[in-house]
């Protein structure tokens, strides 16, 4: 199992707009297609104007399959056109659990 951690840095002060747009237009699409939301956060200290979301996958093949479906979804494409102007940068990391940890999401 693995977790993809995506960090989006918005333009200063635009994290509220980003979260409002995501809740209204993007959340249900991603939950339907990506499936396992592990967490969704915003930064309060440190690097500001960041939104971090994490999604769980069985393996890289499942991640690729689900993200391909997401990128082809017409509603997602429409959302992305509205969302991208709010962002300054995006970063993605693939996290694998330590040998002694087992993720707690449900299949």
CATH topology term: Alpha-Beta Plaits
Q: Pairing-aware structural class of the strands and helices?
A: alpha+beta
The top level CATH class name: Alpha Beta
Q: What is the overall pLDDT average?
A: 95
Instruction: List SSEs in N-to-C order.
Output: EHEEHHE
Name the helicity range.
40-55%
CATH architecture annotation? 2-Layer Sandwich
**Helix segment tally:** 3
* Total beta strands: 4
| Rg (CA only) | 14 Å
User: Numbering strands along the chain, what is their spatial order in the largest sheet?
Assistant: 2-3-1-4
Domains, number: 1
Shape: globular
Question: How large a portion of the residues is in β-strands, by DSSP E?
Answer: 25-35%
Please summarize the sheet with the most strands: 4 strands, antiparallel
Euclidean distance between termini CA atoms: 11 Å
Low-confidence stretches are: none
